[in-house]
Amino acid sequence: MISTEFLYILSALLPMLTMPIVLPMVVLMARRKRLTDNPNARKMQDRPVAVMGGTVIMLVLCITSIVLNLFYDLSSLFPAMCVMVILYIFGMLDDNIGLSWKFKLVMQIFAILLLFFGGYNGVDSMYGLFGLNDMPLWASFLLTVYSGLLLFNAVNFVDGIDGLASGLGVLAGAVMGYWNVCHGFTTQAILSFIVVGVMVSFFFFNVFSERYKMYMGDSGSLVLGLFIFILACPDTYYAVENEFLVDRYFVSFLVALLSAMIFDLFRVVIMRMLKGKSPFEPDRTHLHHAYVDLGMSHLLATLKIMMQNIAVVVVWFLTAMTEMNVAMQFIVVLVAGIVFLWMPYFFLEYLKNNHISFYIKISKRCKRHSDRLEVVGGWIRRIIDGRRKQLISHSIK
Q1: Most exposed: 192, 266, 346, 354, by fewest CB within 10 Å?
Q2: Are 279 and 273 spatial neighbours (Cβ–Cβ below 8 Å)?
């Protein structure tokens, strides 16, 4: 019998060891079957890239869960794994043949319903926000569906540049893992660290590798969105009452932790609707697009957005320390999200349209910082691509 602490370490370490074996093989298969994402006017790459990230993420999650189940009973995750497979199948269909946004919405609602009626309580409390605590079943049902749709699509929206979705997944998984460890919720902590391990490894291949570069795709973003949703509202949370600051301000904590995803989604959807477009019609109005257009590399834009997300979490922490009113603190977090994640986009658009010389000056500075990061990225790229080349050559022989 292994200790709980070692189990947590193993939960993060196993995916990191499994991903470098599974991902290159799937990349080679994707290229042979021409399952690639091709360049166009809206997309960020200049060559076809394998788009089977969902396959890799699902395989690594399943392998890791099966191995860990030998040491700790993870049978409670079985419903989530079944829903993951369903989301993966529909995501793969969307990646390869394209599905209408209406069909995808119905599919996502179906997945949430399977979770809700399969044993997951969903969102059944507002933790005192605006005077609301436990909610009736009908209200819990509606809020669970809304929250699930929000997170599924929020992850999909930020999956527009290399490393952003996986980087934010690492941030969310690590923080939720620490919180679960503090409360002694072993199963949720294991799931959190599995997500961290998978996303850390995927991040390095997605950002730094050229030979084995792979996009997450809709299949991968749906799987990641599913597990972030599960981590955000498992039923064990409701047995905890104000033990930590997070418990007292839990709703605002989740908004802060997932702010880069949530605020980008709301801003983009509002802007599209104001222009008379469908909320799901792709364009280049995301914050990461604005940063890349400014001259930032994908890595620099990802790190900057992650730091802005962390800034919102810091605001949450500082206001929670004052033990202010729950509703007031929630409003402060919303304002922080607008300041850190909305205002930079509008500021850059203002400069581009009214002060182009200053915009160009900032752009040159961003390109210099990106070039410095590329030096480090080049070292990592040589390590990943060189070693993976030897491994695949050996496996083919």
Answers
A1: 354
A2: yes
CB 84 within 8 A of CB 61: yes
Domain range summary for the chain, segments of one domain joined by +: 4-396
Q: Are 191 and 227 in contact (CB under 8 A)?
A: yes
Q: What is the DSSP string of 177-193?
A: HHHHHHHT-HHHHHHHH
Closest CA to 185 of 130, 246, 138: 246
Q: Are 165 and 224 in contact (CB under 8 A)?
A: yes
Say how far apart CA 226 and CA 91 lie, in whole Å. 12
Which runs of consecutive H residues, i.e. helices, occur in the chain?
4-32, 53-68, 78-96, 101-116, 137-158, 164-183, 186-208, 217-232, 245-248, 250-257, 259-274, 287-294, 298-321, 326-337, 343-354, 356-396
What is the full DSSP assignment across 7-75? HHHHHHHHHHHHHHHHHHHHHHHHHHTT-EEPP-SSSS-SS-EE--HHHHHHHHHHHHHHHHTTTS--G
Give the other-Cβ count within 10 Å of 106's Cβ. Answer: 13
CA distance 250 to 359: 39
- Tell me how crowded residue 55 is: count the other CB atoms within 10 A of its CB: 25
Decide: residue 81, CB within 10 A, 0-12 exposed, 13-18 middle, 19+ buried.
Answer: middle
Dist CA 282 CA 268 (whole Å): 10
Beta bridge partners of 36: 50
